[in-house]
Amino acid sequence: MAHYPNFLIIGAMKCATTLLHDQLALQSGIFMSELKEPNFFSNDEQYSKGMEWYLSHFQPVDINDYLWGESSTHYTKLPTYPQTIERIQKHLPDVKLIYVMRHPIDRLISQYAHEWTMRVISTEINQAITKHPELIDYSRYSMQLKPYFKAFGQERVLPVFFERLLSQPQAELERVCRFLGYQDTPVWQDLSATNLSNERWRSGPLRTFLVKNPLLQVIRQQLVPKSWRDWVRKSWSLQEKPELEPEKVEQLKAIFDEDLAVLGSWLDIELSCDNFKDTVKECSGEWACQVVT
Fold first, then answer.
1. CA torsion sign, 185 to 176 to 178 to 87?
2. What is the mean pLDDT of the chain?
């Protein structure tokens, strides 16, 4: 029997939402959709498949499951997907929402690396932040959250910080589960993951054909000199972490500090790009005041 999800991890992109998704999926009594990013409420092509298709992803095998969730970072990609919140409110009016945030510039750089490998972005990062404004918009956390507060109320939105999740994983997992109404004590498990940008290769049909074909793999290893193979790998991979020019960093700080000041006022803390990482590690993650919408 299919279930309506109780909660959604709504983003942000490149903030360890996959890690949190996987940790929740390991807990007894919690079912997470196997399709990690349904993007049902955001993407028109997915939404057009209808609720029956969406709910088909929530058919737990374990009859003891009582919490059901999914994770789609497209849900906090304003203004790219403007109908997302309206659709969620229509179909899941009582849903709980988890929003994971990360130092906004780090998040931007990580997204850039991802988009470069997916061939969405081809320009270098200093040009890309002008050509692709979504790199900035997806790091403007208060801008992304404010319409959710208006639609659902801040009491149904849990702020989670990437830096605190990694430094205090067990405590943060317990906090997330309390918010969801989980009845047991969750246990954080060590999951090995390699998701480093400098290990990523650009996607594309040619690379897929050359890498996945077993016969070509034998030919590469036996007949193609290693120096040639290394050269090809370098041409397909992002070798170094993208580096922002100092003036671009200052421009981004000015934009993000304005947004973080709003976010900080909601959490009753002073928040800026310069103090973000240290401050959020100590943040309780509770909204301190009624947000003006």
1. negative
2. 88
**Confidence (pTM):** 0.84
Q: Which of 104, 106, 115 is nearest to 140 (CA)?
A: 104
Residue 198: CB atoms within 10 Å: 10
Identify the pLDDT of residue 285: 86
Looking at domain 7-195+240-281, its CATH architecture is 3-Layer(aba) Sandwich (3.40)
pLDDT at 267 over 90: yes
Confidence bin at 216 (pLDDT 50/70/90):
low
Of 207, 229, 217, 232, which Cα lies nearest the Cα of 119?
207
Domain ranges of the chain: 7-195+240-281, 201-236
**171-190 confidence digits (pLDDT tens):** 999 999 999 999 999 999 99
- What is the pLDDT at residue 288? 77
Q: 64-86 burial, b if ≥16 CB within 10 A, otherwise e?
A: ebebbbbbbbbbbbbeebeebbe
Please write the tens of the pLDDT for every residue from 142-159.
999 999 999 999 999 999
The amino acid sitting at 58 is F
Distance (Å, whole) CA 162 – CA 200: 21
Decide if pLDDT at 43 tops 50. yes
